[in-house]
Amino acid sequence: MSNILIVHAHPEPQSLTSALKNLAVDTLMAQGHEVQVSDLYASGWKAVADREDFMETALPDRFSYIAESRHAFASGTQSADVAAEQHKLLWADAVLFSFPMWWFGMPAILKGWVDRVFAYGFAYGVGAHGGERWGDRYGEGTLSGRRAMLAITIGGREPHYGERGVNGRLDDLLWPIQHGMLYYPGMEVLPPFVIYQSDRLSEIEWPSVAEAYKRRITGLFNDNPIAFRTQNGGHYDGQQVLKPGLGAGENGTHIHLVQPGEPEEVLDSRAIRARTAV
C-alpha cells in the first residue's frame, strides 16, 4: 500500500470540492493506503511569502526571498509549517490537489502553499549545471518517483475550455501548475479530474461523478501520466530550446509533449558512442 497526501483548498466544508476530497480519503483508506490531508483553509495556512517565513536572516540589508529560502532550507531554519509540509511531500508516494478554478488558476492560498513550501534546495535550485544540463528539474528532482493529480471544479461549460473555446484550452491554463509546479521538481503528473458547471451539479448527477472519481483514484498508480518531455533526455539544446525536428506539426505548449513515434530520450552522437563503447 502507498502513502497519499491530499492538499485541499476550499473554504466551505460542504462544497462539491470538499465532497471530492472526502470521497478521496474514504476511497483511498478503504483500499488500504495511508492518507494525510493538508486542509489549507481549515488550518489557517499563511499564504503570503515574506520575511516572517525565516527564523534568521542571511542578508539583513536587502531582503531576497530566494536567498533567504536557500539559507533557511540548508541550515534547517525554515518556519515549522513549511518544514512540516515538506516532510509530508517526502512521505507521500502520490499527491492529490483538490481546488476550484478561480480566475483561470488556483486559489491564492494554494499558490501561497507552493510559494512557501517549494523552497530553494527542496523543489528548485537542485542539481548541477553543465552543457545541456540545467540542474535536476522537469522529470528529475527531489520529488521524483511521486505521482500527482489535480481534482478541479470549474463553474464554466466544457466547450469554453476546448481547442477553440473562448476561455482557452484547459491544458494551457493548467500548464503553469502541471508542468511548471509539479513536473518541474520531478513528479509524474496524471491528466486532471475535472467537473464542469460544478455549481449546477444536482444530487441526481452526483453518484455518476463520484464513481468516475473513484475510477481515477483507483488508477492513481497505473494510469499513464502526461507525456511531458524530460529536460535532460536530449530533447533540448544548451539554451533549453527544443531541438529542430522535434514537435513537428504542433505548436504552443504541445511541442513539449513527446509526440507519437518520437523516442522518450534523444541521444546526441557523443552519448551514442559512449553507450556503444559500454
UniProtKB/TrEMBL annotation:
Which segments of the protein form a coiled coil according to its record?
A: none
In terms of Pfam families, this protein maps to: Flavodoxin_2
What UniProt keywords apply to this chain's record, in alphabetical order?
A: Oxidoreductase
What's the domain of life for this entry?
Bacteria
Top-level class of the enzyme under EC nomenclature: oxidoreductase
- Enzyme Commission no: 1.6.5.2
This protein's record includes keyword Cell cycle: no
Q: Report the residue ranges that make up the Flavodoxin-like fold domain in this protein.
A: 3-202
- Does the record bear Signal in its keywords? no
Q: Which InterPro entries match?
A: Flavodoxin_fold (IPR003680), Flavoprotein-like_sf (IPR029039), NAD(P)H_dehydrogenase_qn (IPR051545)
Q: What is this protein called?
A: NAD(P)H dehydrogenase (Quinone)
Which organism is the protein's source?
A: Phyllobacterium myrsinacearum
